[in-house]
Give the backbone structure.
Amino acid sequence: MYHLLKGFHEYLTRKEEFSVIIIGLDGAGKTTLLEKIKTFYNETPGLEPSKIGPTIGQNMGKISLPSTILNFFDLGGQQGIRSIWHRYYNDCHAVVYVLDARDRERMGEGWEVFNSVLAHPQILNVPLLLLANKQDASDALTVAEIRNEYADWEARRRESRPRHRKSEDGDEGIWEDRHKERIASLDVMGLSALEGNGVREAVDWLFLRVQNSRRRGET
Ligand SMILES: Nc1nc2c(ncn2[C@@H]2O[C@H](COP(=O)(O)OP(=O)(O)OP(=O)(O)O)[C@@H](O)[C@H]2O)c(=O)[nH]1
Ligand SMILES: [Mg+2]
């Protein structure tokens, strides 16, 4: 009887687990974000920003929400480490792409990498959140400015494509159509991983979106 009740209790209190990957260029603030999430949601606080160095490989963090556990994988953003990102695409339930909203010089590189992430079919139907980090700094681009930057960069990219690829036929055309749809419905949020503003809103977004994720049925 005890085992039966225990099993029933476990069934009722069982939490569904989801994986979220945090990617973006080196220095964007991914680890600072993960550690802030741990501080906000766990009893044991995350690392102080001054103790965080560049990530070589991955960091993990787990938070417990109502009936849900989110497992975060913060992946190193240095060029040589980006090649491991794709190994996480098959099993993740959401993708967070972090952008340093202060770094105008590397914005183009950020979009280039962002587009190469979007090109992976495994994450086609996975919720994707673009975070414009470092909003505490007065020189950070706002969410609206970030959207414009991306739209301009995209327009230039389309313009500079070789002529034969401009044809909207074939695989390239299909990819471009899907890409346009995805960009049109892209969610962009501003936050400061350092100070914490906007962090809870981003976690709320993830919490809601993974519940409705198509991949949910696959697990
Ligand atoms: N002003 C400001 N600085 C931030 C913020 N978030 C991160 N930083 C700083 O940006 C630098 C890089 O932060 P990290 O969290 O190590 O960046 P990362 O994306 O994990 O970098 P990699 O591990 O190399 O991929 C550090 O000096 C952070 O203190 C923020 O919200 N505002
Ligand atoms: Mg890091």
The chain has one domain: 15-218. The chain is about 35% helix and 20% strand. Helices lie at 2-13, 30-41, 107-118, 143-160, 170-184, 199-211. The radius of gyration is 19 Å.
